[in-house]
């Protein structure tokens, strides 16, 4: 990986014209090489090009050359596209030519760094499919660990595929993940609906060491975190989630009041979660409307978590707090989640947007 001193940085004119508050942090991204962007930004045709999760648009590109940008294969460089799903942001890497990720977990940590790298919650690789699936998705968290699945990430993955390949009108494909088969479908409005499969509730499979109290599941159980007794329901969407609506002192959370940075890590590393855990803190507005904040395993506080939103609706149904179809409000925006009775699958619908294109020296 190139060091900060060895990097050249050239921002596209659109970014140079941005207000100082936005342009300055972008200029300080020291490990990027933006030479290709200078020539390519003006010719990108992606109508969703944005510099942040905000609605500010900084260019409506004209002639397309996205594909040629992504096709470039100079040695020593990896070309990437940064996407976000409700502010949960990822570096997407075209890895279709190899079964091994093109960057290591250690490199991923550096690339995800928000001061000395590109800045992201994770790095996602588009890889060849296995067992008859169209593609394989692998992901490294910003701490370099490898989770089984990522809900917001798989929506970004779907939009990235649509940029990389001529899908000939096909809007849905099969993706092999550590959580099994996942099926995203790009809708006409650009949002992505994902069949996230069945939730896993058996305690030992989540995994949690908390004793099962409802069938084989852990539902509204006591979890002692530094002397505070939280009521938790444990759900795996391929990756582990601990969902809480309150504790003994405060049965109904007001999630904006939580000091997430202080309590999140205590859940993540709690001895009851042998594979660590993602934790969702939830406020119930109605049977169809929930609000959550998340502390992610390996990434900390993020603006959204797709698998987390799915786990929240499953937990809310199990605890009798909500119906099977809910809007889940996250700091980065809303997700529509449905846990279908017919097939026991969870369906998630939400956006995925390009943030910027770049190249990085490795
Ligand atoms: N943000 C993701 C989840 C990413 C993986 C998670 N940090 C883990 O380690 O399980 C999502 O949208 O689902």
From TrEMBL:
Localization per record: Plastid, Chloroplast
GO cellular component annotations of the record: chloroplast; cytosol
Matches recorded under Gene3D superfamilies: Diaminopimelate Epimerase, Chain A, domain 1
Main location: plastid
Protein origin, superkingdom: Eukaryota
Database matches in PROSITE patterns: DAP_EPIMERASE
Top EC group: isomerase
Keywords assigned by UniProt, alphabetized: Amino-acid biosynthesis, Isomerase, Lysine biosynthesis
Reactions catalysed, as given in the entry: (2S,6S)-2,6-diaminopimelate = meso-2,6-diaminopimelate
Pathway note: Amino-acid biosynthesis; L-lysine biosynthesis via DAP pathway; DL-2,6-diaminopimelate from LL-2,6-diaminopimelate: step 1/1
InterPro entries referenced in this protein's UniProt entry, alphabetically: DAP_epimerase_AS, DAP_epimerase_DapF
Gene Ontology biological process terms, A to Z: lysine biosynthetic process via diaminopimelate
EC number: 5.1.1.7
A GO MF term: diaminopimelate epimerase activity
Stored HAMAP family: DAP_epimerase
Entry similarity comment: Belongs to the diaminopimelate epimerase family.
Protein name, entry field: diaminopimelate epimerase
């Amino acid at each position: 990986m190139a060091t900060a001193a060895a990097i050249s940085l050239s921002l596209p004119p659109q970014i140079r014209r941005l207000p100082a508050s936005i342009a300055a942090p972008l200029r300080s991204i020291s490990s990027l090489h933006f030479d290709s962007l200078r020539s390519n930004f003006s010719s990108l045709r992606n109508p969703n090009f944005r510099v942040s999760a905000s609605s500010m648009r900084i260019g409506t590109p004209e002639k397309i050359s996205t594909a040629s940008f992504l096709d470039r294969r100079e040695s020593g460089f990896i070309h990437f596209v940064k996407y976000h799903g409700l502010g949960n942001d990822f570096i997407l890497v075209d890895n279709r030519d190899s079964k091994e990720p093109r960057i290591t977990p250690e490199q991923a940590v550096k690339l995800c760094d928000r001061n000395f790298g590109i800045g992201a919650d994770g790095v996602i690789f588009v890889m060849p499919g296995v067992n008859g699936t169209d593609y394989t998705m692998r992901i490294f968290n910003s701490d370099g660990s490898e989770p089984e699945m990522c809900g917001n990430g798989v929506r970004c993955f779907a939009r990235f595929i649509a940029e990389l390949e001529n899908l000939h009108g096909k809007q849905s494909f099969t993706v092999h993940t550590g959580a099994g088969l996942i099926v995203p479908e790009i809708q006409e409005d650009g949002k992505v609906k994902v069949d996230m499969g069945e939730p896993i509730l058996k305690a030992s499979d989540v995994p949690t060491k908390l004793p099962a109290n409802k069938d084989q599941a852990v539902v509204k159980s006591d979890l002692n975190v530094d002397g505070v007794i939280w009521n938790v329901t444990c759900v795996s969407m391929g990756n582990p989630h601990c969902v809480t609506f309150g504790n003994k002192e405060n049965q109904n959370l007001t999630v904006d009041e939580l000091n997430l940075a202080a309590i999140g890590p205590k859940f993540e590393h709690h001895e009851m979660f042998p594979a660590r855990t993602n934790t969702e803190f939830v406020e119930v507005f109605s049977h169809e409307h929930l609000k959550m904040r998340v502390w992610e395993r390996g990434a900390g506080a993020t603006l959204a978590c797709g698998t987390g939103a799915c786990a929240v609706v499953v937990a809310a149904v199990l605890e009798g707090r909500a119906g099977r179809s809910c809007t889940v409000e996250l700091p980065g925006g809303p997700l529509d989640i449905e846990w279908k009775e017919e097939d026991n699958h969870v369906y998630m619908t939400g956006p995925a947007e390009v943030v910027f294109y770049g190249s990085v020296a490795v």
